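Each record in this resource describes a single protein on a pair of labelled lines. The shape at a given residue is found from the number at the same position. The record below illustrates this layout:

***
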Amino acid sequence: MIERAPASPRPLVSFDVVPALLVCLAAPAFFVLLLPWLGWLLLAAGLGIALVRERGRVRDAGPSLTRDLSLIAVGLLIVSSVPLKAELDNLAMLRFTLALGGAVVVPYVLSRWVYRDHAIRFPWRGGGRWRGWQWAWLGAVLVLGWLILPFYFITSGVYQNWPVVDTPDLIARLFVGVGAVGIWDELFFICTCFVLLRRHVADATANVLQAIVFVSFLWELGYQAWGPVLTIPFALLQAIIFLRTRSLGYVVTVHLLFDAVVFGVLVHAHNPGLLDGLFLVAAP
């Protein structure tokens, strides 16, 4: 289940936003500017301010801003320890698996067995059976992806940020990689970052903060040029849908459908003539 928000109202802007923002701004430092030292400074500043604000209350029962931000910081440090350039060789895929997996597992373990908290949860079914609007949105995601993604990837040239996939083996590896990263996105950005942040700030504020982290990661992964025009609303919508459905399974399904189109477009862009009849934009 999604943890209920605190009973007291959480304003859109409060002092707690300052350390949370500093921690989240470490993401563009790591993944956009590629300045690890700046990311480390921002994490240290955010955690330091949170610690001073809470003083001796860090070990008290209930949500702690310092503890929760430390979990996000640990995840960011683990992810930033490896280059995020999309590669499909065995070593690169192993490196991605260990780093991305660790960024979800380590904060969960620390929360559950060190902090003795249950802040991070993965509610797969959540709100139960999907309603009509949820099925309609799945169809809309496919249509929107089909209309927008080929134009974005091909006209901007960002498809070149992914390796050439021109053999069955490479195409299969791309399929696995795109899907695995899509699932991880929801485990870390929504079920970890967003859920931890909304314990201390308003849902809308927490959503903007997690989107900073989400979009920064996607930038280094390859969604550059005018990619944030697409990734920012996607990141914001995923958190809103998660709150409304309380279902990790649903937001993962949305993400995987979107990524299925991404996969098809990348194959199309790297193999002119192979899928020309499927998309409106011709391969270069």
